[in-house]
Amino acid sequence: MFFHAHPDDEALLTAGTMAMLAAEGHRVVLVTATAGERGLADMAPGEALGETRLKELYQSAAVLGCARVECLGYGDSGLSPKGGSAEERPDNAFMDADIEEAAKALAAILQEERADLLAIYDPAGGYGHPDHVQVHRVGRRAAEIAGTGIVLEATVNRDPLVRLLRLATRFYRFPPEFDVRTFESAYSPGEAITHRVNVRRYARRKRAAMSAHVSQASGGDSDRTLAVMLKVPGPLYRLVFGTEWYVRRDLPPGARLRHPFERWPE
Fold first, then answer.
1. Gap between the Cα atoms of 137 and 130, Å rounded
2. Whole-model pTM above 0.85?
3. In total, how many domains does the chain have?
4. Of the candidates 20, 30, 140, 161, which lies 20 to 30 Å from 118 by C-alpha distance?
5. In terms of Cα–Cα distance, which of 98, 41, 44 is closest to 72?
6. Three-state DSSP class for residue 138
7. Does the residue 89 lie in any domain?
8. Where are the membrane-spanning stretches (predicted)?
């Protein structure tokens, strides 16, 4: 089972792994906490956007070979790094959800599916979105309740990312609100990563999953991250997006595993 905050998160971080496991014959289940109804798009935030993004989620899941898709029905906490003020957020914003209550809802699906593995986010929530941080908290607790044996935290090796961004600042002027230093505490350092999953064989499916999220390829005054990624040429795309990273906390930091179910020597 793969637990994400919003539709399109699955395509960015774990799509290759999901496609690989489905191709190997595993039953893959995708769960999102929200419908992403407060995301940035050319259409106004709200119920209509949420419905659109859920349709896109189902299209992405079909490409990846998912057997089941569920949404827990919490409200999208919005684009503000800290979710904005409580007055700006919906009453049922996921970042404000009772962790035990949300974890029980997720655990019920884990138990129903008899899931062997749950994929969530690292403690930083990747780049720090409050809904992503909540996915980590809720997912961890749900795995405890359900007795799920393997918990993988989807992440990115931030070491080469920070080096690349620092180099890019010499040649490219980023928007004023963009601060490379924020990535120094985002995602996970290379030494903490336990799984480096080669998903180059599934790059086309990963790209198709990204393409399914049409609403997230435009909106705002500048190029969206998803749109930029989809412009990367095929060979370079396989190189850049051909590895997916995970941290498994019950293994030694820096363990070098290449498959979610690979065993670490006792």
1. 11
2. yes
3. 1
4. 161
5. 98
6. helix
7. yes
8. none
